[in-house]
Amino acid sequence: MIFDIITLAPDMFELYSKTGIIGRAVNNGLIEINAYQLRDYSTNKHKHVDDYPYSGGPGMLIKADVISNAMQAVDAKEDESQKKAVVYMTPKGRKFDQRVAKELSEYDKLIVLVGAFEGIDQRAIDKYVDLEISMGDFVTTSGDLPALTMIDSVVRLLPGVLGSDDSSVDESHSTCFLEYPQYTRPEIFEDMKVPEILLSGNHAKIAAWKELQSIEITEKNRPDMLAKIDKNELEQKKRKLRKILNRK
After folding, report:
1. What is the pLDDT along the chain (248 residues), one digit of tens a residue?
2. Which element (helix H / strand E) includes 33?
3. For residue 5, how far is the Cα from the chain centroid?
4. Is residue 177 part of a domain?
5. Which pTM was predicted?
6. 209 and 90 within one domain
7. Does residue 138 share a domain with residue 87?
8. How many whole angstroms separate alpha carbon 240 and alpha carbon 238?
C-alpha cells in the first residue's frame, strides 16, 4: 500500500517511516510512504502557500492553486489500475474509527492532504478530496499528527504488518467492545496478583472472563459504543457469561 502525504512538515513522516512496526513494514516492502513538501509547489518567490480568506476573519488559508500543483505532480505518478482515495485531515470531517481504518486499508493508495493554518480553500477540497477525516472533537495546530495516527491505524490492518494477523482483530474497537485487561510476568507485582482464572488453564472460563471484562469496561468507559445494542440482550449475555464462570 502506498501513502503519498502532502504536508508542510515532511520530516515528521520521513522519521516515522523509519521506526518501529511502520519502519519494518516499509523495509519489508509492504507499504511505501512518500512525503511531499507543499512549499515546493508554490509559485510565490518566497514559497508562501497561504493567503487571507475572503470576507475576513482570523488566520490564513492554504491556496487552491498550490494544492492543485501538488496534486498534479503526485498524480503524474499514478497507476490507473490502483484503487486510490484522496483524504483530507480536518476537524470538519467524518470521525475516524476502526471501521474507517478498515475501509481505508482496502485501498492500494491514499493521497493525504494535511491541513494547516485555518485550512484549505474549499475549491481544492471540492475538486480533489474523496474523504474528509477528523480524529475527534478537538483541534490540533496542523493535520500532521492526525495524519500519522490515521496512517498507523490503517497500516497495522494490512496483512503481514503485525507479527500475527490476529493481533489486529482481538483488541479494542475491532468489535463493539473495548479490550479486556491483559497481564504478563511476574505473577505477583507489588502485592497485586494476576487473576486466578487466567492461570487456571480452563479455556472456556478464560474466554468467558475476557468477554465479560470487555463488556463491563465498555459500559464504564464508552457507553456510547453500546447505544445500538439491545440492553436486555446485553444483560442476558452477561448472565450467561457469569454462569460459565461460576461452574464448578
Report:
1. 999 999 999 999 999 999 999 999 999 999 999 999 999 999 989 999 999 999 888 889 999 999 999 999 998 766 778 899 999 999 999 999 999 999 999 999 999 999 999 899 999 999 999 999 999 999 999 999 999 999 999 999 999 999 766 555 555 555 689 999 999 999 999 999 999 999 999 999 999 999 999 999 999 999 998 998 999 999 999 999 999 999 98
2. strand 32-37
3. 15
4. no
5. 0.83
6. no
7. yes
8. 5
